[in-house]
Specification:
The relative contact order is 0.09. A hairpin with a 4-residue loop joins β6 and β7. The protein contains 13 helices and 16 strands. The protein folds into four domains: 128 residues, no CATH class; 121 residues; 100 residues, OB fold (Dihydrolipoamide Acetyltransferase, E2P); 92 residues. α7 packs across α10, α9 packs antiparallel against α10 and α10 packs across α11. The strands form three sheets. Strands 13-12-11-14-15-16 form a six-stranded antiparallel β-sheet. The protein has a five-stranded mixed β-sheet with strand order 4-3-2-1-5, covered by helices on one side. The protein has 472 residues and is of the alpha+beta class.
């Protein structure tokens, strides 16, 4: 193939470890949408450790490359694996027109070719493809496995004890805030929350610590007359979660999983996929919203919200969540609002399942112009669904709302989503959307999708008589 050969891959690899990692991906099973065009572009999607697959593209003409993974090695193992499969010629690539995300990369490319940024010491070490394929498989040591399992159990017990001790400190902190008066809490929320958040980091409860780190910004983002009420609700939510965690033994399995996840326990992708009885839903999914937010820990949280186009036996709304370092420069997820993807999703156990991973991709993401088939639920019905979800999951923070027959209206400086039927229901939109939603003020009726946090709605997608509207 022009521009790429096994020798070229060997030379481009940032280090030998990247070649070893890439070799494990040189198989069609972990890829979807492997394609190429007449312009020398080759692309595909590779399922990694995140909730959504990484989009990988290379140019055969000049060995350019791009991947949406957060790796700091260039080219990453996904780029190298795609080049490897193409160079070997053992795997077939369908001929297709480059999708929009590939064309976007081509337009943004600089005139100079991408260069590896590996550490100089690593780059200077010898790299050899044949050594990778000739590596013997590791032998399994039953005694070592048993020791490792015992160490994991001991570590888990120690973490449980540390978390419970941290929750005791949280209880005392909450009592102190109430004694001092919650009306004054917003004035010193930043310093006070940071101190207890650090204690909970030490107690190995990162979920609670993150919630406390976010609390001041959440309070300050509200009108002043709502701040004390929001402080009361959020501190009450933390107390409720702490009590649920202490009593997780009497909770049902789904609610117990929710409580542990909020505290900061995580479940690996491999564990979820291999879990017997895990909820899986297959079908055609539309991307109806994306959220990109920087966290205090310098990680960017990328959310991709999906809606099932067919009536399914299971959740019709799902969210894919990925975390990437801010330093990586990645500001959005793998998919854009409006795209359609055929996939099987597996949901994390929950009293109200929302978060999911992509298990298998049947058809890669493509732009879709057809109207979104939302349920015949007005704004009042959408609010009723939220209240039902809140009954099942009392510490619920964000809920997806699908609605029909809504209207965008302005009242002073605030903008609201109202029922077109005039029943008096009005949900305030996020102040940051005041400019972007302005065109919708002229519409008599919209159907759409948004994220409701109890105080404000983040409108993500709307169908209007003039066509779709997408939040920037």
């Amino acid at each position: 193939m022009p521009g790429i050969s096994l020798e070229k891959i060997e030379a481009m690899a940032p280090d030998q470890a990247s070649l070893v990692a890439a070799r494990k991906l040189v198989k069609p099973g972990g890829w979807s949408g492997l394609s190429s065009d007449d312009a020398g572009l080759v692309w595909g999607e590779c399922q990694g450790s995140g909730s959504s697959p990484y989009r990988v593209v290379i140019s055969e003409i000049d060995a350019g490359y791009k991947c949406t993974c957060p790796s700091r090695k260039f080219p990453c193992k996904h780029n190298l694996a795609l080049m490897w499969m193409r160079a070997e010629g053992k795997i077939s690539f369908q001929t297709a027109q480059a999708p929009d995300w590939v064309q976007d990369w081509v337009r943004r490319r600089r005139s100079s070719s991408t260069r590896p940024t590996a550490d100089d010491d690593e780059a200077s070490k010898p790299k050899n493809l044949s050594a990778v394929t000739a590596q013997p498989s590791e032998e399994v040591d039953p005694k070592a496995d048993a020791r490792a399992a015992a160490a994991r159990d001991r570590s888990r017990r120690e973490r449980e004890e540390a978390i419970l001790a941290g929750l005791d400190d949280l209880d005392q902190w909450l009592v102190d805030q109430v004694d001092a008066g919650l009306a004054a809490f917003p004035q010193h929320a930043g310093k006070s929350c940071r101190a207890i958040a650090q204690r909970l980091v030490d107690a190995k409860a990162p979920g609670f610590a993150s919630a406390l780190d976010h609390l001041p910004a959440r309070i300050y983002g509200l009108p002043e007359h709502l701040r004390a009420t929001e402080a009361l609700e959020q501190l009450g939510r933390l107390h409720l979660l702490a009590e649920a965690y202490r009593r997780q033994g009497i909770l049902n399995a789904e609610l117990r999983a929710d409580a542990r996840r909020e505290i900061g326990w995580t479940q690996s992708r491999e564990s979820l996929l291999s879990e017997e009885g895990a909820l899986c839903v297959s079908g055609s999914w539309r991307v109806v919203g994306t959220v990109s937010e920087v966290q205090p820990d310098r990680l960017r949280r990328l959310e991709t919200w999906l809606w099932s186009e067919a009536v399914v036996d299971g959740p019709r709304t799902a969210v894919l969540i990925d975390f990437v370092p801010v330093a990586s420069g990645q500001t959005r997820g793998a998919y854009r609002t409006g795209e359609r993807i055929g996939a099987t999703l597996v949901f994390y156990p929950s009293a109200r399942p929302l978060r999911a991973l992509i298990k298998d991709i049947v058809s890669p993401a493509q732009d879709c112009d057809t109207p979104l088939g939302l349920p015949a639920t007005d704004l009042a019905g959408a609010m009723a669904e939220y209240e039902n979800a809140l009954c099942a999951l009392p510490w619920l923070s964000v809920w997806p709302m699908r609605f029909r027959d809504g209207r965008i209206r302005r009242n002073g400086d605030r903008i609201f989503l109202c029922s077109a039927g005039g029943d008096g229901l009005a949900l305030p939109l996020m102040p940051s959307q005041a400019v972007t939603v302005a065109p919708l003020l002229a519409m008599e009726r919209i159907d759409g999708f948004g994220l409701w946090d109890g105080y404000a709605l983040r409108l993500s997608f709307a169908q209007t008589p003039l066509g779709p509207w997408v939040s920037e």
